Amino acid sequence: MQLTDTEKAMRDGAGGEAVAAAMDLLIRYGNALGAERLVETDNVAGAFNASTPSVRKIAENGMAEVFSRLNLDSDKTVEIPQMAARTCQLITGIDDQNWALQGADPQMIEMQRASEAFVGQRGVNLMATCTPYQVGNVPTFGEHCAWMESSAVIYCNGALGGRTNVEGKESTGAAALTGRIPYWGYHLTENRYGNRHIRVDVPVRSMLDWGLLGYFTGEMVEENIPVLEGNLSGVDLVKLKHFGAAAASSGGVEMYHIPGHTPEARSAEEAFGTSRAEESHVYDAAARKKMYDTLQSAEDRKVDFIMLGCPHNSIEQVGRIAHLLDGKRLHPDVALWVHTPRAIRTVAERSGYVARIEAAGGKVMSDTCPAISRRLPEGVRVIATDSAKQAHYLPAIAKVQGWFGSLEACIEAGLTGTWKGDF
Amino acid sequence: MSTLTTPLLIRGRGVVAGRVEGEALVTTQTISGWGGINERDGSIIERRHELVGQSFAGKILVFPGAKGSSGWSAFFHMTRINGVAPAAMLFTRMTTKMALGAVVTRVPAMTDFDADVFSAIRTGDHVVVDADAGTVEVTRR
């Protein structure tokens, strides 16, 4: 891989041991990819804090060791300087305020706080959400980024026209300290054109519709780049957030185009660019029903947990839940947790949404989600969620049965304790 | 069972250097890291995966590549720290998740093969991976 003089100096220790370790990792990683060079980035979204039992032993030796080993893949513990690039923390393991409700060990929240103090001191913005683009990190068109979190990556590329690959815990650590990431994959214009076509024949309008279409898209195109055309309406931030998270879960979709709606596709012609559709798929009523059925992993209709907010909810989504629960009470056997970024929770509190959800017996959580934290209310056997991503992952992680459906179906299950579903 | 006297030789590109031999575990399905494996025992936990319940610890893992969450590298990184990493990774689809995961797992890794590894290697075969030389030797078991 070609390095600039500045990058060679970083490798050779001019920026200190941590920067040298970071550059060493980027070189190993870039060579593994077959990248020709690195590209400058000033927008890093990664996972830097210590919040799980698995890192406890390392954290006992100090937070510099956590960063060295887990964020730089360095065997030597190095002193961690200020981040060189604009850097934020993504979703984390423990809700800083509701940790007791989550059933987290007090020592674990202390560890998370100590690690956040450590990285915060070094310039990591503790957004603590899977949706940094909802709380102040909105890449500009064409901006080179180094982001983790598959649902955020697909949003960055597809919805915003920022440029990032799916980075990991180690590469974002190295990018944060060097302001560099391998120039490979989605950083290059020619790799961003569509190579699959999806014709949407059944109307896609509601949140449920967009989630199901996303899940279908991932199943069909795997890691390719779909161009979606047809009966699509209601395109907005929350629909694309839901669509992308689903597509990134069932496949590995990191980029898509919806001509007329997404920034690199003013037309289908622009979406395909110098590429072409190697395969075409049709999304019809039968495909929609099949996706709905695929997402169900439950048999028992007696539900005891409603999980909302994956990816983290927007302020409008929290408001909608408050509206649906207004003046009602959850079934006594059911817990309902809504997940939203801490910054949005503050607005939700001020808007009265949190109080209305809590009056119905629900909770508004931040910083984490059950799949990341692996923590659910005690004794949960059957969950219901409006998130295709959560329905895909949580049953396997938490060994529970899972129902998937619309927000309205989830709220109804919360109020009655029984899953009826949408079909 | 038939035993080949001469091992089959496959050539490819080394992604992470090193030489190791062991027993193959083969799947034609991509693997999820976060939510797809248990990093404490090296087993596959994805409910619809053909290897669900099986462990890759110490095996020559032959698979198309990575899928799913960006936690891929961190979870395979933890399998190394927990001593349950695969002995080597042979994969066919290069992605950032796969490259970074292989680098931080620090086991010999290869891709870009001159033969179809999924028909050439079966679970249980004895495999010698030499990522420095760019060769894979397969002995049927």
What key phrases describe this protein's structure?
heterodimer; A: 423 residues; alpha/beta; Aconitase, domain 3; 3 domains; five-stranded parallel sheet; 18 helices; B: 141 residues; Glucose Oxidase, domain 1; 17% helix; 32% strand; globular
Strand coverage percent of chain A:
5-15%
Q: Major sheet of chain B, described briefly?
A: 8 strands, mixed
| Most extensive chain interface and residues per partner | A-B, 38 and 36 residues
Total of domains of chain B = 1
Poorly predicted runs of chain A: none
Description:
- The complex is a heterodimer of chains A (423) and B (141).
- Chain A contains 18 helices and 14 strands.
- By secondary structure, chain A is of the alpha/beta class.
- Chain A has three domains: 5-148 and 159-182; 193-294, no CATH class; 305-416, Aconitase, domain 3 (2-Layer Sandwich), CATH 3.30.499.10.
- In chain A, the strands form four sheets. Chain A has a five-stranded parallel sheet with strand order 12-11-10-13-14, with helices on both faces.
- Chain B has helices at 72-81, 96-105, 117-120, and strands spanning 8-11, 13-16, 19-26, 31-32, 37-38, 43-44, 60-63, 66-67, 88-91, 109-111, 126-130, 135-139.
- With 141 residues, chain B is of the alpha/beta class.
- In chain B, strand 11 and strand 12 form a beta hairpin.
- The mean pLDDT of chain B is 94.
- Chain B has one domain (8-139): Glucose Oxidase, domain 1 (3-Layer(bba) Sandwich), CATH 3.50.30.10.
- Chain B is globular.
- Chain B has three helices and twelve strands; from the N terminus they run E-E-E-E-E-E-E-E-H-E-H-E-H-E-E.
- The A-B interface holds A 25, 28-29, 32-34, 47, 54, 69-70, 73, 147-150, 153, 165-171, 182, 184-185, 222-223, 248-249, 251-252, 297, 371, 393, 395-397 and B 13, 15-16, 30, 35-36, 39-40, 45-47, 66-74, 77-78, 81-82, 93-97, 99-104, 109.
